[in-house]
Each structure stands twice: as C-alpha cells, then as structure tokens.
Specification:
Length: 383
C-alpha cells in the first residue's frame, strides 16, 4: 500500500490535469464555467488526491476532516451533493486505473483496489454528512441574499450586475436569454427544467412565484438557443416566452420584458414556445391587444357575432384557404369537402366582411384579423 500512496503523491502534478479533465467530461456540474472555474476544478482534484493518499496511509482522521471542509465549499459553490458524490467515484476509478497501470503483482492489485474503494465509501459518507449538516443552515443564510439578488437581476437598476453575478454565480458577460412562463393551471410552467439544464452543463437561475416563473439561461457552444427551445417545448406546461440573446447581465431586465411579451403572443391555454425574434406579428398583437381587438372586430365582427357552428365553419375555411395560397381546391382537400362548398363559404366571408378576396390589401387584413383572434383567444371568449 505504501507504493500506492507514493504513486498518488509523487505523480500528483501529472495526475491532476488528467483527473480534472475526466471529471469535467463525465459530470456536467464540474465543467469549467458552469459552477466552478477550471482552476477551482483542478484545485479540487489536487485536494482529492491528497486526501485519498492520506486515507490510504492510515491518516483517515485528517483526510475525513479535509473532505468535510471541501464538501462545505462545494455546497457553497452550488454543487449538488449527487454531483460531488459522482466526482468522488470518478476519482476512485481513476486512482484504481493508475495503480493498475504501474503495478503487476496481483495480490498487491487486489489489496489496493479493495483499499481504494473502501476509501471512496468512507469519503463519500463524509461528503454526505457534511451536506446534511450544512443544508438547513445554508438555506436559512442564503435564501434571503439569493432572493434579493434575483430581484435586483430582474427588477433593479443598472450597475448592480457585479454583486448580483457574484451571489448567483453567473458570469458578467456571456450568451444569455430570459425565459418566462405563467402558472396558468396550478403547477409550475417548466417542471424540472433547472435540474435538467444542469445535467446538460447549462447554468440557469430562476425567480418563481405562485403566478409566474422566469429565469436567465447561460447558453454556450454545447447548448444553443435552438436546443434550449427544444427542451422548453418538451417540458412546458403552459405557453412560454423567450427573449432575444443578450451579452451583458445588466440586460436581464429588458430581456424579461421581451420574454413576457413573447409569452403573451402564445395561444392561451397552449404550450407554445414563442421566441421574441421569430414571431413578429403575434408580438405586435400581444403588445397592443386593445387596438388589435378593435381591428379584428372591424374586419371580422359580423362573422364573430354568428352562431358557433357557422362562425367556426367560416373562420376555419378562410384559414385553410389562406394557408394554401388562396387555392379553393387545396382548401377543400384539407377540409374534406367539395371545392364548390369552399367557394360558397368564401363568398359568404367576403359578404360579411365587405372584403374582396381578390385584392391583396383586403386579404392581408383578413389574415391579420385571424391572427388576432388566434393570439388573443377571442374564439374562446365567444358563445
């Protein structure tokens, strides 16, 4: 066992970069820039190897004390206990592999492997105990400061970004977006998203209330805006808005306004994910809903006042016709009816709206009015 201890201590400078790379690759919470810097990950690995050597050299009391202190530091840095335990096991496998590469005697290998994994179990228990003892105290101490930092991030004045970034462990500069959701059905708009992002190596912070949820997400080369929107679509329980990308943390307040408007541009009751940079007409409607309602009423008012069945038939036919570039035949195929039936319904639309379906300007008004009805959920508000 003395040879194993000498190996770990004597080759520390060589082993630390390799171990840091392996942990960063296999445990996303330790990827540089997520919760820790590359230097902090390397320092953690150097300490872990030293603790392992001390434990194997029968100085377990010292090793366990150091591990508990390191666990408290990891907790303060926001590293989940599951990630800390995973990193420990990666380290155990790493040390075992290093021993196998330098030792050929089977009896020594068997004993070394057994001692290494016994050390991992003991050190893991020390980490768990440290987290268990720290968590209630840390939550009491940190909850107020964390809440104040979130409030400053989304609602404070300019110039507070350095303090906010330090408290929330966010970079001052980077590639950010704000995501906003509403609690429309009694459960969180984005169930489990924060934990899911962390497993992907993506840092995010969230402010939640009984009615809404919004957060800043830090994007990067491994996780871009398209991937985020796909993740949002998979987990959304209500409509979600996404701001445009910004690069200065002080931009979070303006980005929250963008994300909120984008969210309002989603269909009520849907799980639409609306990006501020890709839904210009719905965003225009959502930003001026009163004026939009007046426009829809001026264009489609007589249709909207019809009985439910006729109103839905005419609106659905008009939308199908518009979606198929003004082709009655294509609309008829989509609606499973005769082309002449579509023609009759369109003439009825033209009569009730006083619009000429052969004039581009009139067709544009009809399309905009339909968009308003959809975005503002006006159909659901009618009898």
């Amino acid at each position: 066992m003395q040879r194993v201890v000498q190996l770990v201590r004597g080759r520390a400078d060589e082993l630390v970069p390799e171990l840091a790379g392996r942990i960063s690759e296999q445990e996303s919470a330790y990827r540089p820039g997520v919760l820790l810097t590359a230097e902090e990950v390397a320092a953690m690995c150097r300490g872990a190897l030293a603790n392992a050597a001390s434990f194997l050299a029968d100085d377990s009391a010292s090793a366990l004390a150091e591990v508990r202190a390191g666990a408290r530091l990891r907790a303060d840095q926001g590293v989940p206990v599951t990630a800390a335990l995973h990193a420990l096991r990666i380290g155990g496998q790493f040390v075992s592999t290093a021993v196998m590469a330098t030792e050929t005697r089977q009896t020594v290998l068997a004993d070394a492997s057994s001692r290494v994994w016994s050390a991992v179990e003991a050190l893991s228990q020390a980490v768990t105990d440290a987290y268990d003892r720290l968590e209630p105290h840390r939550m009491r101490q940190d909850s107020r400061a964390h809440a104040e930092a979130l409030d400053a991030l989304f609602h404070g004045g300019p110039g507070c970004a350095p303090e906010v970034a330090a408290e929330l462990r966010l970079p001052l500069d980077g590639t950010f977006v704000v995501v906003a959701g509403e609690n429309e059905r009694g459960w969180p708009p984005l169930c489990g998203l924060e934990d899911r992002l962390l497993t992907r190596g993506v840092m995010s912070v969230w402010q939640r209330s009984h009615a809404a949820e919004h957060g800043v997400v830090v994007l990067g080369p491994r996780f871009d805006l398209g991937q985020l929107c796909a993740e949002l679509a998979d987990r959304a329980t209500t409509r979600i808005g996404v701001s445009e990308i910004f690069h200065d943390l002080d931009g979070a307040r303006a980005a929250l306004a963008e994300a909120s408007v984008a969210r309002s541009a989603g269909r009520p009751g849907s799980t639409d994910v609306v990006r501020h940079d890709q839904a210009l007409v719905p965003l225009l409607i959502a930003s001026a809903p009163a004026a939009a309602r007046r426009l829809a009423g001026a264009v489609l008012g007589r249709i909207l006042s019809l009985a439910h069945r006729e109103r839905e038939t005419l609106l659905t036919t008009l939308q199908a016709w518009l979606d198929n570039d003004g082709s009655p035949a294509a609309a008829a195929m989509l609606l499973h009816c005769h082309r002449n039936t579509v023609g009759y319904r369109l003439r009825r639309v033209a009569e009730l709206t006083d619009r000429n379906l052969g004039r581009p300007a009139d067709v544009t008004q009809l399309q905009l009015a339909l968009d308003i009805v959809e975005v503002l959920g006006m159909r659901d508000q009618l009898n």
